[in-house]
Amino acid sequence: MTTLAVVSAGLGQPSSTRLLADRLAAATSGALPDVTVETIDLRDHAHAMVDATLTGFPSGTFRAAVETVTDADGLIAVTPIFNASYNGLFKTFFDVLEDGALDGTPVLLGATGGTARHSLAIDHAMRPLFAYLRASAAPTGVYAASEDWGSGETALPDRITRAGTELAALMSARPAPPKPGPYDAPVPFEELLARR
């Protein structure tokens, strides 16, 4: 079973960020057979993220959210754009992840904003973040401005379909994780002594 994690950093309920995340997930899962989609709304974990930043480790339901993302076969990451970049919730979540947690993970980048002027935030802010995390970003990022939602004249549905298809292809091409070897989980010495 293939798993797709979806991270939405929208602040409101309902949220255009979550709406975009859901549409990207639908486009990706439509191009992949037998996929399970798990969505994480970061606003539900805001306090736990701050705690994890201060203590150095996630706990409770936030820990489960982190494990969902780090164990997934692919990731969709969507944020609203504030001051020409991703919001604080989005950055805090990815700051909490352990080094190497997203190595090689296929990721689709999405963003929302009030105006098309911020559409380059995906390329100048989000792509460098995921390059640093050593994730494998899909070529097409999807930005949705306010005017993209109500008009039939927009190319947003085509961009969503193209990006979802690209992520599905990256996920399908990703090699399976190596099977554990006989020395990957050794028996603790104390347990060996107890067997005598």
Describe the structure.
- It contains 8 helices and 7 strands; from the N terminus they run E-H-E-H-H-E-E-H-E-H-E-E-H-H-H.
- It is α/β, with parallel strands linked by helices.
- The chain has a single domain (2-194), classed as Flavodoxin domain (Rossmann fold, 3-Layer(aba) Sandwich).
State the shape. globular
Structural class: alpha/beta
Output the CATH homologous superfamily: Flavodoxin domain
Span of the ends, CA to CA: 41 Å
Beta-strand residue percentage = 15-25%
CATH topology: Rossmann fold
- Helix percent band: 40-55%
Mean pLDDT score: 91
Query: Can you count the beta strands?
Result: 7
What's the CATH C level?
Answer: Alpha Beta
The number of distinct structural domains comes to 1
Global Rg: 19 Å
Detail the poorly predicted runs: none
| Count of alpha and pi helical runs | 8
CATH architecture: 3-Layer(aba) Sandwich
Sheet with the most strands, sense and barrel status? 7 strands, mixed
Query: Could you state the order of secondary-structure elements as H and E?
Result: EHEHHEEHEHEEHHH
TL;DR?
By secondary structure, the chain is α/β, with parallel strands linked by helices. The chain contains eight helices and seven strands, in the order E-H-E-H-H-E-E-H-E-H-E-E-H-H-H. Helix 1 crosses helix 7 and helix 2 crosses helix 4.
